[in-house]
Structures are given as structure tokens and as C-alpha cells.
Amino acid sequence: MDEDKVIVFIHPDLGIGGAERLIVDAAVGLQNLGHTVQIWTSHCDPAHCFDECRDGTLKVVVRGNRFPTSILGRFSIFCAIIRQIDLITYFLMEDPDFASATDFFIVDQLSVCVPILRYFLHGSRTLFYCHFPDKFLTSRKSIIKSIYRIPFDWIEGYTTGLADGIVVNSKFTASMFRKAFPKIDVVPRVVYPCVDVNEVEKAQTKLEGEKYPFLKGSDRKIVLSVNRFERKKDIDLVVKAFSGLTEEQRKKARLIIAGGYDNRVAENVEYHIELERLCDSLNLRHATCRNYISSLTIPSDIDVLFLPSVPSSLKSFLLRTASILAYTPENEHFGIVPLEAMLVGTPVLATNTGGPLETVLDGGETGWLRPPEPAEWTRIITTALFELTDEERTALGERARSRVKDNFSKESMSATFQKELEIIYKTRRRMIKFHDVMMPVVVSTVVIAGLLAGVGRTDWAYVCGFVGGGTYLTFGLLSVLARDMNPRL
């Protein structure tokens, strides 16, 4: 692009997950290229967000947090839609001049706002970033849940297809996108997530690791697993693989399982207990360290160490000192942890599925890709811990670092994002009309009202119809008023 542009990111909840890391990195990268960048979100907790969102590096605007994220633990997708519409209403009405001056929107996770933005802001372009189709992320354990999801699956596909451009985080996600939305004629291109290749190791990183007794002066080789404590991450795989080492080998090694853990999340608590029981069944001595104080009581002869909610500095230390990273999830959409390990020269063992197929070079080039079979993983772990020479390990580490720097840097991602914006800026597009915006409301109202009537709740079916009709008329009136207030919209 020949001149600086105004770019606005629309993101539902700016926490500290992988999707949020990508959005923050993209925003910083585009800002460094000279563009004016803002992030609009429904929620951003200063105590639970990335540094760039609270130290002034990025301008983050929080609006539309008036509605709950769920109702009695349910209807999360419905609430997410309402919250995003509320956010976009603030954006359009709070500063219409800035809204109409916005050149590009980068929307991710939820696409409901795409037709609204295009309807009001004819001169802007909208790029949708698909981390993974929501259609494939939700379970359908009952007929009612399956019917309930029908309008929302349709809305996801319909509104996503109205974006000027669509990008995804990996070729694997691109294949799943085409499977989820076969009628969308926009071909999604890949913009890979990144890691900060210019990050300088800080002194406290070293101190953070060395102060823990189980690491200080230990000559045990570390097999490291970094994942959230969720069953779909299949951490069982590396526990079983580690148990396949001989008793003599286990005396020279230790499996450390670190990752996201929240006491409020039932699955985190339950899965941690399940993993402890698995260790017991395999005769693996284990312990859990939740903070520095509890680390003082960790026996020196344990085989498996659990580190729930590991601090980022300790995680960095572990990635640098581990002999191998064991990345267990199958069909992971992308997976940023293998890149973090490769950047510091640590070899990666991952399943031969999903995102790691695009990041890890097999055959010991930068790591290994194997089917999720414990015996296979035991063999590779043995190789990485006890069979590689120092020269081979050093060469592998250099190849891994080079691959990350050449293909997955923040600068590379920013340049690719800018290229995608240039593409959609030149692409011809059809105008969005009133019925394009309101079609999702009509479809969802009809389906949900029909579902309520089918289960005998005709009273709620009438209420749903009344709300849907009222929304249709209200939006029509607001669109007329908005354009009267600011003809540029």
C-alpha cells in the first residue's frame, strides 16, 4: 500500500490465548509498518492480557461488555453474537468520523459483524481470520443441541462468506474450512502465526528456572510437554511413552508436564487427577508443583512433575533447557509451542497431523513427526535423550532456529497481512444490502421459534418471534437514523 491506512481489529475477548497472541502480534506488526491501528474488543482484563494491551503499545478500546458471556452456563454462541453486535454498535455510533475513516477491518473468531460493517461503511474492506471453523469446535451430544446449532452454523457460513477476504492459520485449517463451508467461493489463503524471533533472553528467565530445587543443579534430561490440561490435548500419550523407557533411562530423565490450568474449569481439575492416576498405574513417581513454596517439598527422585499454570519465565527456561518437546495434540489447528521450542534450538516430537506438519521438519531435520503410538514415541524420546551426539544436537538446533526465523517471524506475518489487505483493496465486491444484514436474524428466529414450539414452549416461541421481528424493524430504523446523522456512513 502506498500510504498509511487506518486498520481496526475486532476481537471478542482479548485474553492471553493463542488467538489473542496472534491478533496482538499482527496489530503491533502493522503498526510498526506505519499504519494507524486499534483493537476493539468486548473484554480486556488488565490483569489477564498481554503486555502490549496494557502498556500503551496498542490502543485497545473495550466496549459492549454489558451482556453476559453465557446464560446459566449455556447459550455461549448466542451471547457472543449479542456482545459483538453491541460492540459494533458502539463503534459505529461513538465516533462516526473515525468509523467512516477506517480503511480495513480484521475480524476473527466471530463473523456476525462482517455484513454490518460492510453495510454501513462502504469504503472499508473486511478481512476475516479463521483460526478454525466454530462449526467443528462444538459438540452435538443431543438432537436438541444439533437443531439449536443449525441457525448458528448457517450464520457462521453466511456472514463469513460476505467478507472481502478470508485467511486461515494453516493449510490444515484451510482444508477444514473448505469442508465446513463448501458454498463459500472465496479461497482462504494462509497467514501463519508467529513468534518474536528478536526476543532477547532476560536475566530473570535464568533466575526463574534456577531457583527451583528440582531444576537447580539437576543432571536429569528433561522431556517437556506444554499444553492446557484438557483431554483433547492427549497428554496421556507422552506419559505412556515416558513409561516405556527402561528403569535405568528413567533415572537419567524426567517428564515435566506444564501448561494452562484453572481451578474453576472442571476439566482442568479432572484431567490432572486422571493423569496422576495414569502415572500410578504405570509405576511412575509423580508430584505437582503449584508455586515456589511447594517446589521445596518435591522429592528428587520423581519421574513426572506437573506444573499447572506455569509462569511464562519458567516456561521459557524449560523450553531452553529441555532435551525434547513432546507435542501431543492430534489435528492441532496450528500450534505455537513447537515454534517456541524450535526458536531456542530444542527439537520437537509431534503427532503427524494438523499444524505441526507445516512447522516441524521430520527425520531429525528440526524434529520428528510420528503417529500417536506410545512405542513410536518412546523410540524417538530415547534417540533425543541418549543417542544424539553434541554435534548432531547443535546442528539440529541451528536448523530449527533458522526455520522459525525464515518462515514464522513477526515481520514475515506482518508483511503477509499487509499483502492480503492490498489484495482485497483491489478486489471487486458486491454491495451489501439490508437483507444481507438481516438474513441471519430471520433465519435464527424462525429456527429457534420452531424448536421451542416443537418442545411444547409455544409461549417462548411467540416471544422469540416478537424479538426477531422487533430487531428487524429496529435495525431498519437505526440504519436510516445513522445515515441521517452522518451521511458518510
Describe the protein's architecture and organization.
The longest helix is centred in the C-terminal third of the chain and has 28 residues, at 458-485. By secondary structure, this protein is of the alpha/beta class. The model is unreliable at 200-204 and 484-489 (pLDDT under 50). Helix 13 links the parallel strand 12 (324-327) and strand 13. The protein has helices at residues 18-32, 76-94, 96-101, 113-120, 143-160, 171-180, 203-210, 236-243, 247-250, 266-281, 292-295, 312-321, 337-343, 356-359, 374-387, 390-407, 410-426, 434-454, 458-485, and strands at 6-11, 36-41, 59-62, 104-108, 125-130, 165-168, 189-190, 221-226, 253-259, 286-288, 304-308, 324-327, 348-351, 367-370. It contains 19 helices and 14 strands. Helix 2 (76-94) runs parallel beside helix 4 (113-120), helix 8 crosses helix 15 and helix 18 (434-454) runs antiparallel to helix 19. It has two domains: 6-194 and 413-485, Glycogen Phosphorylase B (Rossmann fold, 3-Layer(aba) Sandwich), CATH 3.40.50.2000; 203-408, Rossmann fold (3-Layer(aba) Sandwich). The protein is globular and about 70 Å long. Helix content is 48%, strand content 13%. A seven-stranded parallel sheet has the order 3-2-1-4-5-6-7, sandwiched between helices. Strands 10-11-9-8-12-13-14 form a seven-stranded parallel sheet, sandwiched between helices.
Please sum up the structure shown.
With 489 residues, the chain is α/β, with parallel strands linked by helices.
